[in-house]
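Field log, afternoon session.

UNIT: design team B
ACTIVITY: writing a sequence onto a fixed backbone
BACKBONE:
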């Protein structure tokens, strides 16, 4: 039962006897992985939790018992939205040496005393996607061309890189501009041409097809990705009812709507562009 939970990305809380003295000295620890015939754990008291090193259950609490007898009670924690084994400590790259930054940066606000989680996706329903935690005051490199415009904005996520090289998404409302940082250079205005430029075909409103995110996505929402693949980088999660502008020929797009394994190139209300699964959209 514990093994199945861990494999599904669900941590397990177990009760052990914390002392070899007579009787049971009740103590609870969190199991987050399996190693050989033992379990990796976080032991909150009296030890300082540290996810950068490994603590083994049996090494600390076996007291000459077998694994089954060392654990007296089990609580399985259901982390909704998790989709794989719980992340385990690592001493490999990245994270061994500071990475130099050359692009625009933002700083974790001093008020974020608990540290800012850097996630592999913008899903906050689980801790499984946390790849690193940046302490207050940490300077993060922005990996998006429009990253500076998101800093401090509520419900906005920005892709960042930590000083140790970890990359992921950070909640932009916990970030602030780096004091003394130079603003992004502004390109000089172009000299207008004597001949009016023909508007790009993509912006011709008459050619645009509008679709709506289907209610079939439920509360999970529909993923907007950078590429037409389930492995594509996540841009945003769209709620049911969200209107999207299709950025491909209407006739071609209509043939895909409602069909599995088909992707549509779309633009959201916040000008976010990417791909969504065509089976999860409908015509308004």
């Amino acid at each position: 039962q514990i093994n199945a939970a861990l494999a599904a990305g669900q941590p397990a809380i177990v009760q052990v006897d914390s002392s070899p003295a007579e009787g049971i000295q009740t103590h609870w620890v969190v199991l987050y992985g399996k190693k050989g015939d033992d379990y990796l754990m976080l032991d909150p008291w009296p030890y300082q939790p540290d996810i950068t090193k490994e603590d083994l259950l049996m090494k600390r609490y076996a007291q000459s018992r077998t694994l089954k007898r060392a654990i007296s009670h089990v609580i399985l924690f259901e982390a909704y939205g998790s989709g794989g084994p719980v992340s385990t400590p690592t001493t490999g790259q990245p994270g061994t040496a500071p990475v130099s930054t050359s692009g625009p940066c933002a700083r974790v606000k001093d008020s974020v005393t608990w540290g800012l989680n850097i996630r592999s996706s913008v899903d906050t329903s689980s801790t499984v996607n946390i790849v690193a935690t940046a302490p207050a005051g940490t300077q993060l490199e922005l990996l998006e061309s429009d990253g500076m415009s998101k800093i401090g904005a509520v419900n906005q996520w920005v892709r960042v890189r930590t000083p140790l090289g970890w990359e992921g998404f950070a909640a932009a409302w916990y970030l602030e501009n780096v004091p003394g940082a130079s603003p992004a250079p502004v390109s000089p205005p172009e000299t207008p041409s004597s001949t009016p430029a023909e508007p790009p075909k993509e912006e011709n409103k008459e050619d645009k097809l509008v679709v709506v995110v289907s209610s079939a996505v439920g509360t999970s929402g529909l993923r907007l990705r950078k590429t037409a693949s389930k492995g594509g980088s996540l841009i945003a999660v769209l709620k049911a009812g969200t209107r999207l502008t299709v950025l491909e020929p209407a006739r071609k797009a209509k043939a895909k709507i409602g069909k599995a394994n088909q992707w549509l190139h779309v633009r959201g209300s916040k000008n976010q562009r990417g791909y969504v699964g065509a089976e999860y959209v409908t015509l308004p």
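LOG NOTE: Residues 2-7 form the longest helix (6 residues).
NEXT ACTIVITY: expression trials, pending approval
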